[in-house]
Amino acid sequence: MTNDRQTIAIIGAGLGGAAAGALLQRAGFDVHVYEQAPSFSRLGAGIHMGPNVLKIFERIGIDKKLLEISSKPTHWFSRDGITGEYLSRIPLDGYGTPYCTVHRGDLHGLQITALNEGTLHFDMKLKEIEDSGSDVYLEFEGGTSTRADIVIGADGINSRVRETLLGFEKPNYSGWVGHRALISADKLKKHDLEFEDCVKWWGPDRHMMVYYTTSNRDEYYYVTGVPHPAWEFDTAFVESSREEMAEAFSGYHPVIGALIESTDEVTKWPLFNRNPLPLWSKGRLVLLGDACHPMKPHMAQGAAMAIEDAAMLTRCLQENGVSDFKTSFALYEANRRDRATRVQSVSNANTFLLTQEDPSWVYGYDIYAQPLKSESAA
Ligand code: FAD
Predict the structure, then answer these.
(1) To pair with 92 at 20 to 30 A between CA atoms, which of 72, 79, 189, 197?
(2) Do 156 and 14 touch, CB atoms closer than 8 A?
(3) Strands 136-140 and 75-80
(4) Whether the Cβ atoms of residue 299 and residue 50 lie closer than 8 Å to each other
(5) Contact 298, 347 (CB under 8 A)
(6) Contact 145, 129 (CB under 8 A)
(7) Residues that are catalytic
């Protein structure tokens, strides 16, 4: 194992950047994380974390706490959105660690606590980046600058680091939006209906994924996929309304009706994606997560892929060291590209677990048990 004391800058402290920071620091690397936001707020959204990610969180040391605070569904049910008929009942156990669903802000907060004190820098929006050949110069809005030996672009779908590697290109608007709402479970009690731990309601051209975000099941969450011809806003999301939801899901199952009736606040997010990138790194710069392979969120594996990337990149840097970044980055891409691209394409197609299929290729994957493929095998 090589842990040479060279510096690593990570741009973006999202779910992927935070994981990369914590894993690299635990492996002994000198890492700083630069985040554009002035602070993080508890955004109204939930997230799934499968056993493939829990295995990585074990290494970071946050798995137990996550399991304590999250809901642990035993199945992913797929149901017809109108009749309620079961289309599949997918067991989520048998992968060594539980499957969990949680509030996204709580997960992110937990990940941030795993970073070494003083290594996460807020209010640092990367503006310029220049690979000098012997190191990298980074300049942030407001004029602060720093240097690092290598830079990891974990800066999301509109990545500034990706732009440096490949030029500016807007992501593709998929023609779909996702509505997100958190619902107090108390409000659901008046309905004589069953609110299952993790269920996806499928319509002919739209769906609603629903699950609890807490271990005591006091907060329920839905996220939709609904066709919407064009995204006409500049912001990451806009407010939606109970009325808009009722219209989008008119005629759907009574459980969906009850969820909409119990909605206080709901937001609407455009779903963007990109085609697989021709390269994942150049010189001293490398990408991970949504900066590298953004996808529609329909497998609930986008963040999972960012976190798996972080684990594999750490393995490859441990194997070869920062000084031999070229070999490390090539090895990383060789060991991630096929899986990330497969997940990206299945997720974009929105077919995952609609029928009684075996998801072990996703959840049974243990990134630490994979023999490293040589870079030339890519
Ligand atoms: P991000 O989370 O986007 O983080 C990027 C970070 O970089 C941000 O903090 C940003 O502020 C920062 N940044 C950006 N530009 C700069 C800059 N110039 N300088 C400094 N910092 C910068 N995935 C799952 O695994 N499970 C799910 O259940 C799930 N549900 C989803 C539901 C919806 C509706 C959507 C839209 C996505 C969902 N995803 C889910 C996907 C998941 O949110 C993303 O794949 C994941 O957040 C990607 O992580 P990331 O760290 O690569 O990027």
Answers:
(1) 189
(2) yes
(3) unpaired
(4) no
(5) yes
(6) no
(7) 48, 211
Tell the residue nearest (CA) to atom 53 of ligand 1: 156
CA distance 25 to 27: 5
Question: What is the DSSP code (8-state) at residue 50?
Answer: -
Q: What is the pLDDT of residues 121-146, one digit of tens each?
A: 999 999 999 999 999 999 999 999 99
Query: Please, which pLDDT band fits residue 378 given cuts at 50, 70 and 90?
Result: very low
CATH architecture of the domain formed by 172-273? 2-Layer Sandwich (3.30)
**Per-domain residue ranges of the chain:** 7-170+274-377, 172-273
d(CA 327, CA 323): 9
Amino acid residing at 107: L
Contact of 298 with 350, CB cutoff 8 Å: yes
* Largest Cα span, the chain: 66
Measured CA to CA in angstroms, residue 185 lies from 42, 221, 257, 262, 339 at distances of: 18, 9, 15, 9, 37
Q: How many angstroms separate the CA atoms of 48 and 293, rounded?
A: 18
Give yes or no for a contact between 254 and 79, defined as CB atoms under 8 angstroms apart: no
Name, in order, each residue with C-beta under 8 angstroms of 4's C-beta and a sequence gap of 6 or more: 321, 322, 323
Which residue from 284, 282, 281 is spatially nearest to 7, judged by alpha carbons?
284
Ligand 1 neighbourhood includes 344 CB (under 6 angstroms): no
- Of 42-51, 67-76, 106-115, which gets the smallest average pLDDT? 42-51
Which of 14, 182, 221, 188 lies closest to 101 in space, CA to CA? Answer: 221
Fold for 7-170+274-377, please state it: FAD/NAD(P)-binding domain (3.50.50)
If we measure between CA atoms, which residue out of 298, 295, 290, 233 comes closest to residue 267? 233
Confidence of residue 377 (pLDDT cuts 50, 70, 90): very low
Q: DSSP 3-state helix, strand, coil percentages of the chain (rounded to 5)?
A: 30, 25, 40
Question: How far does the centroid of ligand 1 lie from the alpha carbon of residue 63, in Å?
Answer: 20
Q: Does the structure's ipTM exceed the value 0.90?
A: yes
Which residue's CA is the closest to the ligand 1 atom numbered 8? 14
